[in-house]
Amino acid sequence: MNPWIEGLVAISLLLGSLFALIGALGLYKLPDFYMRLHGPTKATTLGVGGMVVASMLYFSNQGNGLSLHELLITLFLFITAPVSAHMLAKAALQQKLRLSDKTRGRPWEQ
Length: 110
What we know:
By secondary structure, this protein is mainly α. Helices cover 78% and strands 0% of the residues.
C-alpha cells in the first residue's frame, strides 16, 4: 500500500479514536444530563466519522473501489445523532430534570 495512504489512514484512526475518547470522558465526567448530552452527540459522532473515513481510505485503496456502505454509514450517523439529541433534550425538558449549578439558563421558566 502507498505510504501516504497508510499515513492518512493512521491519522484518521488516531483522530477518530481521540474524539471518541473525549466524548466518552465527557459522558462520564459532566455533572448533569444536559451537559452529558454533548459528549455522545458531538465528539463521538466525529470520532466514528473519522474511523469510517479511515475505513473508506483503506478499503478503496485495496482495489475494491469506493464502497457505498461507508458513505451511507457516515450520512446516517450525521443525520441521526442531532435528531436523537434533540429528542432526548425535549424529553428532559418535559421531565424537568435536575440541573447542575454550572448549567446556565432555565428554559422552562420563561
